[in-house]
Amino acid sequence: MKFRLPYYQKLILGIFLAAMLFMPKRGICQQDPVFNQYMNNLLTIQPAYAGLSGYVNVTAMSRIQWAGFDGAPTTNTFTVQGPIKKYNVGIGLSIINDKFGQVVRQNGFYGDYAYRILLDNDQYISFGLKAGINIYEALFSELTTHDPNDPVAMFDIAKKYLPNFGAGFLWHSDDFFLGASVPKFFKNGVNSPSGVSVYHEEVNYYVMGGVVLPITDNMRFKPTFLYRYSQLTPKITDLTANFLFYDRVWVGATYRLQNSYGFLFQIFLNPQLKLGYAYDLTTFHSTQVNAGTHEFMITYDFPTTRKRFNRFTPRYF
Length: 317
Description:
Layout lengths: L6 H14 L35 E9 L8 E12 L1 E15 L3 E15 L5 E15 L18 E16 L3 E7 L6 E3 L5 E4 L4 E7 L1 E4 L2 E11 L6 E10 L3 E8 L3 E9 L4 E10 L10 E10 L3 H4 L8
Antiparallel strand pairs: 1-2, 1-17, 2-3, 3-4, 4-5, 5-6, 6-7, 7-10, 8-9, 10-12, 11-12, 12-13, 13-14, 14-15, 15-16, 16-17
């Protein structure tokens, strides 16, 4: 089987993958939700991804972090995306629900627009825009505190509406992708009625990439990476290695540098419907405080006219 990715593109991707190993590695928490199956959730942070598959896609994901730990974070996302008439334009919708214990809750609603320019060899440059709103609320009065006069815990934060917008780009084909994005440009903040700052959004810069390499007629190897940089929050580097068997089953492993490691499994029940599960453990003695993190995914591609999008069978990204 002849692999169509030119040598210089594989070299560029290899350089980026190697560079991830030497970037700052500290990663304790995250402001934006981070998933092990991020390749099926990329629209939440990369607007240029909208409509990339060529199909109308619906994806739902749920992440139960640090199972067994009281008040641990839970995150749910729902995305809808697809091309508009022609492949060069794509739109999407991202809904994010994030909860930390019974106190802090966030709901985000974002629309995405992508425009693609065809290059040589069936490659594209995609530019994307994201705009929407994050709704933040905190029920601090439900906390048990040692100081009843704590200025933060004295007041609840009613729903605060935080508008934002972002942008991104992707260079991609059927077999590889490389891009960067900034999903939020505004540094929105929330203060309590007493004037104490309780929440502040940071500008996060993402770099992502991946490539599909054929090993045999029935097996392919897909390494991917996702790196996030922010000035005041921990940096995150995700490295993932997946194997695709018979264009039906994905099996892989993930590693978040100095934070966690795990595995993932995905299966196509039919050409349109895919189910996924991921599990990870933290590298800092996680079994002493929690039973790991569980992540569930379901995604469906609505059939479209084969003449228009027959390039994307099977889907790799």
